[in-house]
Write a structure and sequence with these properties.
72% of the residues lie in helices and 0% in strands. The chain is mainly α.
Length: 275
C-alpha cells in the first residue's frame, strides 16, 4: 500500500515538473532572447553566444517605455481600487439589504456579462467622444471602474456573512458604512484578493480598448506601446529583441505581485474556483 502511494506521488511530481518546464521555458526563452543582438535572434539558439544589452539601452534611451510603464501602473491601480470598492459595496447592498427590485437589479447587472466587449467598444467610443474623454486616463479607465463579474463575486461572498454579526455592530452604534468597511470587508479578504489580482492583470494586459481610445504616444499603455514595434515599418523590420526586452520588463510587476501576495492569491482562487 505504501509503495503504491510512493509511486503515485512520484508520478504526480513528474507531471508537475513537466508542467513547470512547459510553462517556464517560454518565459526563459523570452528573457534570453532579449539579451541577443537582432542578427543572433534569428539564429534561434537557446542561449546567447554573446550577452547583448543593447535592446535595453535602446528601450530606455530611445522610446517612451517608462512613460508607458507609468501609464499602465496608474490605470491598473486606480481601476483595481475602484473595482474593489464599488463592486464590494454593490455586492454588500444586494446581499444584505431587502428592497423592492433587488432581484431585478441583480439580474440586470448579470445580463451585462453576456455582451461581448467587442460589441461595447463602439458605444463606449461614441460616449467618450461626446464627453471629450478620448486620449485621456479617464477614457481608458471608465469601462472597468465597476464590472458585473466583480459585483456577482462579491455578492456571493457577502451572502455568507452572518446577519447576527452585522446586527451586533448596529446595536453597538456603528453606521451602515462603517459596518460595511470594518465588519463586512474583513470577512471577505480572500475574495477581495482574487478580484484585485484578476482586475489588475486584466487592465495591465488590456489592448483592444486602449488602442482605440488612445491617439498619442505619450498616453499609450504598455501593450499598446509594445505593439508599435510589432510592425515592419518601425525602423527597418521587426525588432524582436526589443519586443522581448519590453515584454520581460512588463512581466516584472506581475511576478512581484504574485510573490508578495502568493498566499492570498492561492486562497482566493481556490475559494472562488476561478482559473
Amino acid at each position: 500500500m505504501k509503495s503504491r502511494t510512493n509511486v503515485t506521488a512520484i508520478v504526480i511530481h513528474i507531471v508537475l515538473w513537466l508542467g513547470i518546464v512547459v510553462v517556464a521555458i517560454p518565459f526563459l526563452w523570452m528573457i534570453l532572447s532579449s539579451l541577443k543582438s537582432l542578427p543572433e535572434f534569428y539564429s534561434f539558439d537557446f542561449l546567447p553566444k554573446k550577452w547583448d544589452f543593447s535592446a535595453y539601452t535602446y528601450i530606455f534611451q530611445q522610446t517612451q517605455y517608462l512613460r508607458w510603464y507609468g501609464n499602465s501602473i496608474i490605470v491598473g491601480v486606480i481601476v483595481t481600487a475602484s473595482e474593489l470598492f464599488f463592486a464590494s459595496l454593490v455586492g454588500y447592498t444586494l446581499a444584505k439589504f431587502r428592497f423592492r427590485g433587488r432581484g431585478a437589479i441583480f439580474v440586470l447587472i448579470l445580463s451585462t456579462m453576456m455582451v461581448p466587449t467587442e460589441l461595447l467598444v463602439i458605444p463606449w467610443y461614441v460616449m467618450s467622444a461626446w464627453l471629450h474623454w478620448t486620449n485621456s486616463f479617464w477614457g481608458i479607465m471608465f469601462p472597468g471602474m465597476i464590472e458585473a463579474f466583480g459585483v456577482f463575486l462579491m455578492r456571493q461572498f457577502m451572502l455568507g456573512i452572518p446577519d447576527d454579526l452585522l446586527d451586533a455592530a448596529r446595536i453597538d452604534g456603528m453606521t451602515e458604512f462603517n459596518i460595511f468597511l470594518r465588519v463586512a470587508l474583513p470577512q471577505v479578504k480572500s475574495s477581495l484578493s482574487a478580484l484585485g489580482i484578476l482586475t489588475f492583470l486584466g487592465n495591465w494586459n488590456a489592448y483592444l480598448w486602449p488602442v482605440i481610445i488612445i491617439s498619442t504616444q505619450g498616453m499609450r499603455t504598455l501593450p499598446v506601446g509594445i505593439s508599435l514595434f510589432s510592425t515592419a515599418d518601425n525602423g527597418g523590420g521587426l525588432q524582436w529583441n526589443l519586443i522581448m526586452g519590453m515584454s520581460t520588463l512588463a512581466v516584472i510587476p506581475i511576478v512581484l505581485v504574485y510573490f508578495i501576495f502568493q498566499r492570498q492569491i492561492v486562497e482566493g482562487i481556490a475559494l472562488t474556483g476561478i482559473k
